[in-house]
Amino acid sequence: MKKVNLLILTCLFIANFGLAQTAQNYIKPNNGNLKHSRALGLNLSTNGFGIQLAHSILKNGKLLARLEGRYYNADISNQEYDFTGIKMHVNGFIKRGSIGILIDYHPFKNSFKFTTGFSILLNEVKNVAKSKDSVQQGNITISPDEIGSINIDYKVEPSPYFGIGYGRAIPKKRFGITAEIGFYYTNTPKINYKGSGLFETRIPSTVTVYNVFVGDNYNGTIIPVFNLGFNIRLGKI
């Protein structure tokens, strides 16, 4: 009888030990999946160049957040334009960029994604157009200073962003590449116009400012963006 009881106790011990090991092996992978992953990225886009930090939100990797910053600035120097028959030099600058928070959603098992978010746009343009040469009117010569100049500039407001793409901001391996196309939906920029000299009395509605405004799509609410990213996963794979 003692031998039977000992055999039963031994079997129960082995069974309990086996169940404990199975439960432990089952829990370990799940705990591992709960660890959040991060990645650092470099961006090359039509709205500036910059960096981003990505952080996973869901353990299955379908949802992640990105904090990004982009910037680009270029000077316009003596760019020549023909404005109503007057050759003018345009000087100024073009500034593009953004600081924003984006959310990537991967609905399928591959790397296809939808992206949405909100950004503070740094886009700004300023142009100053001035006559290149003096203008002859009969026997009268009008100097560039007398002809005057046209000053035009604008800024855009913070904007929501929508896009689609392929690739993971947090790659499954150490390195990864992403491609994304989208757009900012912003305000219709208010164009600030000021003329001097002969242009001072001409109101904006009678002046074709498009001919002297260089460097950006300034009269629409949609700013398209194409982005190419190179991402480095941080921590252990």
Can you offer a commentary on this structure?
The chain has 237 residues and is α+β, with helices and mostly antiparallel strands. The chain has helices at 2-33, 144-147; strands at 38-45, 48-56, 63-83, 86-105, 112-121, 124-131, 135-137, 140-142, 149-155, 159-166, 175-185, 192-195, 222-234. The strands form two sheets. Strands 1-2-3-4-5-10-11-13 form an eight-stranded antiparallel barrel. It is elongated, with a radius of gyration of 31 Å. The relative contact order is 0.18.
Give the SSE map:
Blueprint: H1 2-33, E1 38-45, E2 48-56, E3 63-83, E4 86-105, E5 112-121, E6 124-131, E7 135-137, E8 140-142, H2 144-147, E9 149-155, E10 159-166, E11 175-185, E12 192-195, E13 222-234
Antiparallel strand pairs: 1-2, 1-13, 2-3, 3-4, 4-5, 4-6, 5-10, 6-9, 7-8, 9-12, 10-11, 11-13
